Amino acid sequence: MGQIVKLDDVRTASLLPNYVAGQWVTTAQRFDNIDPTTGEVIGSVCEAGRAEVDAAVMAARKALSGPWGQMKAADRVAMLHAIADRITARFADFVAAEVRDTGMPLHFADHVNVPRGAANFKVFADLFANVPTETFPMDTPDGGTALNYGLRVPRGVIAVISPWNLPLLLTTWKLGPALACGNTVVLKPSEETPSSANLLAEVMAEVGVPDGVFNVIHGHGADAAGQWLTEHPEVDGITFTGETSTGEAIMRAAAKGVRPVSFEMGGKNSAVVFADADIDAAVAGLARSCFQNTGQVCLGTERVYVERAVFGEVVARLAAVARALKPGRPGEDGADFGPLNSRTHQEKVLGYYRIARDEGATVVTGGGVPAMPDHLKGGWWIEPTVWTGLGDDARVVNEEIFGPCCHIAPFDSIDEVIGRVNATRYGLAASVWTSNLSTAHRMGAALEVGICWVNSWFLRDLRTAFGGAKQSGIGREGGVHSLEFYTELRNVCVRL
Ligand code: NAD
Ligand code: 6OD
């Protein structure tokens, strides 16, 4: 195991330790934390080795039967509220950590990412405290009676593996229900965005979450902390958000010991604009779904289908919005969007920008790297981009890019567009823009996605099921659906 340190001793060195069994643990192996707006190193992260991963999992195992396991449900609810309140009290710290690691716009961190960090604890604490289980009185074959009732028990040690695009929102979306159900957790945040996980550990310690209930191990995925965590035999369930190909690797690891998984993965989401839509609202919605957070939202739109009568208008108006968006550092005057998260990701997105041109796309706007002032030239900037003119078999119309870009194609009938939207291996989200109620309901029923928004996008009610169809996910989280993964439902049959 690495060295146990005091947080104040490493904070000045911008060093992020692991958090294991309530203690801060440094390791000799380090990796850089990089500011995506400048490309500069802003800190160093202690990479967990097998020993730290093992210690974290075993601490989580031990904590299951300690004070956490014996805690009254009402006290656990109060503790989750205290976590949420503490996140709110340290709102500025969380915002600073998130914008530093991701470069996301300040208003996005302020209004979406960090508030959800608190809400994800509160909502699940309250929800699960009030969920009934099933009861079945029965007649027995010998003329007697019996009573069956369901008991929800924690699943055990949960491995949480999260991505870099909305670190706090996506991590707490799993931590909230996991802890509300009485599990213990080992979190491996993305190596690209490690900071808010350590702030969460601080918050847990501040509100008195027992040692070992929440652990953070830092590191990479394959052949590193992520893989060792998912392979660990003492992990009882794995909840993961990230790329579909990573999900395949984690599923292989989970097969050993037949551990359950809950996966939220990639997408190639469509928006459909009917000619009867409120075009102002549709263009504003498309601008958000295509470009918000520099296109790094799993629910974002990369395929747009527009009914032919309004095709030219929508293309021109969306391109005008894209052209007017101003890149800049979070909080910088007038900055609408930040950089991509890493050099690797910028190379990937620019690669797709080249592929689009090679495939014969018309580049209506964007397609490259914006001119940036000298102090930001080293960052991973990218232009919001709109293409037209490609067939549905083009690579940029089929493969997830995860950047601020979309291809817009015309369509002529509802049946045609349903077929085209569904012709993908993904099935995460869709948005439909129409003023016709029948069209709205027909699309909602026909599109093969986990969530279909009508005249909206990324409008979230945490009581609803969330997840992906096809290769975009396994299982549903959100509301009472989270109970399916985070608890075991035990039936107790009492002969009376
Ligand atoms: P990623 O799959 O590369 O990484 C996600 C996490 O998995 C990271 O913590 C990484 O270290 C870890 N990991 C990688 N290989 C691993 C392995 N072999 N074993 C265990 N852990 C491993 O994803 P990313 O690049 O961080 O995020 C972008 C992707 O996430 C996109 O595909 C996006 O669509 C998807 N995403 C989906 C949702 C959703 O709700 N469906 C939400 C956000 C992001
Ligand atoms: O809103 C949520 O609960 C959620 N999981 C959003 C995912 C966004 C992806 O980037």
Give descriptors for this structure.
17 helices; single chain; alpha/beta; 496 residues; Aldehyde Dehydrogenase, Chain A, domain 1; six-stranded mixed beta sheet; binds nicotinamide-adenine-dinucleotide; binds (2E,4E)-2-amino-6-oxohexa-2,4-dienoic acid
Overview of the molecule:
With 496 residues, this protein is of the alpha/beta class. It has two domains: 287 residues, 3-Layer(aba) Sandwich (Aldehyde Dehydrogenase, Chain A, domain 1); 192 residues, Aldehyde Dehydrogenase, Chain A, domain 2 (3-Layer(aba) Sandwich). Helix content is 40%, strand content 23%. The chain has 17 helices and 24 strands. A seven-stranded mixed β-sheet has the order 16-17-18-15-14-20-21, sandwiched between helices. Strands 11-10-9-12-13-23 form a six-stranded mixed β-sheet, with helices on both faces. The longest helix has 23 residues. It starts with a strand and ends with a strand. The protein binds nicotinamide-adenine-dinucleotide and (2E,4E)-2-amino-6-oxohexa-2,4-dienoic acid. The site of (2E,4E)-2-amino-6-oxohexa-2,4-dienoic acid (6OD) has 9 residues, from helix 7.
The dominant shape is globular
Low-confidence stretches at least 5 residues in length (pLDDT < 50)? none
Task: Just name the CATH architecture of the largest domain.
Answer: 3-Layer(aba) Sandwich
Mean pLDDT metric? 97
Give the ligands present. Answer: nicotinamide-adenine-dinucleotide, (2E,4E)-2-amino-6-oxohexa-2,4-dienoic acid
- Rg over CA atoms, rounded to whole Å, is 24 Å
CATH class descriptor of the largest domain:
Alpha Beta
Class per helix and strand makeup: alpha/beta
Sheet of most strands: 7 strands, mixed
CATH superfamily of the largest domain: Aldehyde Dehydrogenase, Chain A, domain 1
Strands, total number? 24
Question: Which strands sit side by side, in order, in the main sheet?
Answer: 16-17-18-15-14-20-21
Counting H and I runs of at least 4 residues, what is the number of helices?
A: 17
Instruction: For the record, give the distance between the C-alpha atoms at the N and C termini, rounded to a whole number.
Output: 53 Å
The number of domains: 2
The CATH topology assignment of the largest domain is: Aldehyde Dehydrogenase, Chain A, domain 1
